[in-house]
Specification:
The protein is mostly helical and 120 residues long. The chain is built from 6 helices and no strands. It has helices at residues 2-21, 28-48, 51-63, 71-83, 93-100, 106-113. Helix 2 (28-48) packs antiparallel against helix 3.
């Protein structure tokens, strides 16, 4: 019973964090801070939720790396994440795109990412 309850809290927390992240433009220094914060959420989840729910926090933590990568490396990073099936069952492609579009420089690098990836 406790595991189910904590799993539900974990999933809801994941979606709250995801929606919160999508409300902001995130710079590279902000990306480092976001990763530090998400690591703390991940640590909480690793202690309290089941492995299935932990996948949500792992995917979010991995995706946050998109904010600290150089623009030229972003496409390869996303392709690697999809080939490893990091987001399967956790986030739809549209949600991943929405998070990546929160980069503060996204307007300048949009053409480097869109249309070059199978998922975008």
């Amino acid at each position: 019973m406790r595991t189910v309850f904590l799993g539900e809290i974990g999933v809801r927390l994941f979606y709250v964090l995801l929606e919160h992240i999508k409300r902001f433009r995130i710079t590279e220094p902000g990306g480092f801070q976001l990763i530090a914060d998400l690591n703390l959420y991940y640590d909480w989840a690793a202690e309290h939720v089941d492995p299935e729910t932990l996948r949500y926090f792992t995917a979010l933590k991995d995706l946050a790396n998109c904010f600290i990568l150089a623009p030229r490396d972003l496409r390869g990073f996303l392709q690697d994440q999809y080939s490893r099936r990091t987001f399967d069952g956790v986030m739809r492609s549209e949600e991943v795109y929405d998070v990546v579009a929160c980069r503060s420089d996204y307007r300048n690098i949009r053409t480097q990412v869109e249309g070059h990836c199978d998922f975008m």
